[in-house]
Amino acid sequence: MIVDVHSHLFGCPGHIGDPFRAESARAHQGEVDLTVRYAEYAASAPEGTRTIVFGGKARRSGLWVEDTAVAEYVREHPRTLIGYLSIDPTQPGWSDELRYGHQELGLRGIKLMPMYAGFDPADPAYDELFGYAERHGLPVLVHTGTTFVSAAPLEWARPVHLDAVAIRHPELRMVLAHLGHPYEGECIAVIRKHRHVYADISALHYRPFQLWHSLRLVQEYGVWDKLLFGSDYPFTTVHDSIEGLRRIAAVPGIPGLDPLEADRVEDVIGRDSLALLGLS
Fold first, then answer.
1. Residue 13 · residue 57 · CB < 8 Å
2. Residues contacting 43, CB < 8 A, separation 6+
3. Alpha-carbon gap, residue 162 to 142, rounded angstroms
């Protein structure tokens, strides 16, 4: 069974406004239809794939998907989908949205976008959020790494800020998205330190040299077991992500350096991430 820990729900155009839409078009050399349709997702993934899905809230960047939309999407496909709520803690009422999404809608984790929303996740002002997640066993998926949105401060995309969060909340399960690219070394240092902090490898396969180099660092630090599979659908697909990982795993070593351990790459693809995140 494949577990995809990183999948979006967008119902364009209602969920995506400027600057996100305009800058996505600039980055992709033209307007991109990001509307998510379950049948298309399922056709692009192996049968039986279990998928964590979320919307996203970042007023600064023009992205806002109500948690009710995610809950409805999950209700339509309960055997395969697990829904996360989203929070933008720069906006009033976020703590009410947190409790409503968890206690009323039954969503089982939290998606945060510090860079897109423009906040420092290490600020103790947000300990209420992380403390709630820790007490209630809600895993938190945090966007780390770069973006095409120019209004989103790169400083808050750095994985090192989540080190302070993990120190204050040692039982909190966190996933740092995209291996923190281009701060992969920093991300690896954080996941190596903390027992319940992981990284996903979503949306990396289309930079093959960078991904090969990053996985070499994973191998050298001995943290293969802290990597989780994710796609970043609809920006890419499960099938393409798996194919891209296997292509990287097949690259021969270079003089003086061994190749990647292909069986460890397969372990990442087939990992039971739900068990690690307390979502089985």
1. no
2. none
3. 9
